[in-house]
Amino acid sequence: MEKPVIICVDDQREVLAALRKDLAGLTEKCEIEYCESAEEAGEIMNALDDSGETTALLICDHVMPRKNGVDFLIEINNDARFTRVRKLLLTGQATHQDTIVAINEAAIDRYVEKPWQAEELLKTVKILLTEFLLVSGMDYQSYLEIIDQETLYEQLRKRT
Amino acid sequence: MISKKTMHLSISVVATLLVLVIPVSWIPIDGLTIIEQRILAIFLLATMFWILEPIPIFATSVLIITLELVMVSDKAFFLFQNDGSVANFGSIIAHKEIMATFASPIILLFLGGFFMAIAATKYRLDINLARVLLRPFGSDPRKVLLGLMVITAVFSMFMSNTATTAMMLALLAPILASLEKSDTGKMAFVLGVPFAANIGGIGTPIGTPPNAVALKYLTGENAIGFGNWMGFAVPFVIILLGFTWILLLRLFPPQSATLALDIRGKFLKHWKALTVYVTMGITILLWLLDAFHGMNAYVVAMIPVAVFTATGIVTTEDMKRISWDVLWLVSGGIALGMAMEKSGLAMHIIDSIPFAAFSPLLIVGVATVITIVMATFMSNTATANLMLPIVAALGISLGGLEILGGSKMLILAVTFASSLAMSLAISTPPNAMAQATGLVETRYMRKSGIIIGVVGLSGVYILMFVLRQVGFF
């Protein structure tokens, strides 16, 4: 079975460790990659795309040395290969201006503020994964464990 | 490490190739022609692919049609054509006829149903109807459960079972959240909706794809009209639904005293919405009265398609939501059945097994039980696609079956049986959705699903007996 890939980007290892803990329940159905910089994440996404694998969700911090998160998300948003990738901005330090840019130019799907509630983050991630599975036409029945009920109902209701 | 999928794929393909290349005389069926041997191989491939599912089930259907075109049609690949040297070549099938299965009247009947479902969802007729219809059921959890099940069943007669379940579970979500964690009633609600959707699908020819497949075999003197079908199927649905309701209440009694379902909204009143209401009303009325006005159900189905596209109620964007996979799954079944029938393979298979030696009752019993077991583990439609060509031929060739109602009875019994499998999450998409709520324990679904299957199957036998008594067959 094809495993959708989640990419987590944060320059702080503690944050990645916390994410690893909170997303542990998804690992059976998803591949999760942890990156310490936007550059590294970009390379991984390229490599995945080259080998025909699908990046489903990008969870990205904003304030990072060298390339910042919002700039990276804009890049991804403008990349035709990644139009279906769901984007979650996970940060505590984005300014008002950064947030506006993230919404208008990077078209992020969700914004979660640090520090986050484990349960809320998991719910958000599941919603985004469900959206991804349905828009990319993957068989949702194989991924019931990582699916958000309400999102699934809403989408299936619209089908014939 | 070879993946399970690859293994299933290779086993199926090797077995198929084997049937294809061995000399025709090795196959223990008398009088088999080369064309029939090829169709037998395609049938085997379809069976294995639909059971093991190495590729999506609708893809198997497309594959059947393509293989038929390449191997047994009048425009087949040149190596597959008869150069005149083979005596027992058999009769080829016109490629136009194979391709026409994509647009057979049965497919267009379903398309009409899909257009109505899209329009109803888009103009919120489904939710608004559910809201109004639920009101008389009050706030007693037992009655609310009955209300939800009745509405689910009625909707699933005209919409897909999956979409209906999705809508009703979405309505249910707030109730489930409000119930105590220990309240066993939760299970009754989560199982009641998918079960009602599975059962409700039996009610009309467009209720569920297996019914559509059955229509392919119910032709000529065996033809059944839309209103006619509902005349006996709806009473069956009502009785089985009532039984299911009582069963769920006994197994999982709700503990809370009251239960309030809060659905907001009001009926839309602009001209497009009104057009949707009127068109749907007229279409359903015309379907019910198909015996009186000359238009059969297939012709009537085109009316909503024409009205909704002309008025912009269903746009090009909306049309992308049509489940083409379901339509193609049925097309493949029709093409498979047609090839087996036209080539004479179905008859030859039946003749090679001494069915006449068995009691007709036993044959009905075995056919329906095999169907329900298959449908438990695989797609109901694929089950119907595989079982019905065999069963239809069996009904015709077996004289002893006439006393019980002949092939019409057998086809209906098998079709109903294919919708009665609901003991596992994989049995039907509605069951899978119930499982996904995380509130259903597998063993409870298994237990209640098996009871409903057994009772439902007994109900089918009684229904067939009654229909025979009133001279329907």
Q: Can you walk through the features of this model?
A:
The complex is a heterodimer of chains A (160) and B (473). Chain A has 160 residues and is an alpha/beta fold. Chain A has one domain (5-116): Rossmann fold, CATH 3.40.50.2300. Chain A contains six helices and five strands. In chain A, helix 1 (13-22) links the parallel strand 1 and strand 2. With 473 residues, chain B is an all-alpha fold. Chain B has two domains: 4-100 and 345-436, no CATH class; 105-324, no CATH class. Chain B is globular. The model of chain B has no long low-confidence stretch (mean pLDDT 93). Classes of the chains: A alpha/beta (160), B mainly alpha (473).
What is the structural class of chain B? mainly alpha
Q: Please tally the helical runs of chain A, counting DSSP H or I stretches of 4 or more residues.
A: 6
Number of helices of chain B: 21
CA radius of gyration of chain B: 23 Å
The overall strand count of chain B is 0
The SSE order of chain B reads HHHHHHHHHHHHHHHHHHHHH
**Share of β-strand residues of chain A:** 15-25%
State the end-to-end CA separation of chain A.
26 Å
Short description:
With 160 residues, chain A is an alpha/beta fold. Chain A has helices at residues 13-22, 38-50, 69-77, 96-104, 118-135, 149-157; strands spanning 5-9, 31-35, 55-60, 86-91, 110-113.
List the helices and strands and how they pair.
The complex is a heterodimer of chains A (160) and B (473).
Chain A: E1 5-9, H1 13-22, E2 31-35, H2 38-50, E3 55-60, H3 69-77, E4 86-91, H4 96-104, E5 110-113, H5 118-135, H6 149-157
Parallel strand pairs in A: 1-2, 1-3, 3-4, 4-5
Helix pairs in contact in A: 3-4, 5-6
Chain B: H1 4-21, H2 34-52, H3 57-72, H4 95-99, H5 105-122, H6 125-134, H7 141-158, H8 161-178, H9 185-200, H10 209-217, H11 226-251, H12 271-288, H13 297-310, H14 316-319, H15 324-343, H16 345-352, H17 360-377, H18 380-397, H19 406-418, H20 429-436, H21 442-469
Helix pairs in contact in B: 1-2, 2-3, 2-15, 3-15, 5-10, 5-13, 6-7, 7-8, 7-9, 7-11, 8-9, 8-20, 9-11, 9-20, 10-15, 10-18, 10-19, 11-21, 12-13, 15-18, 16-18, 17-18, 17-19, 18-19, 19-21
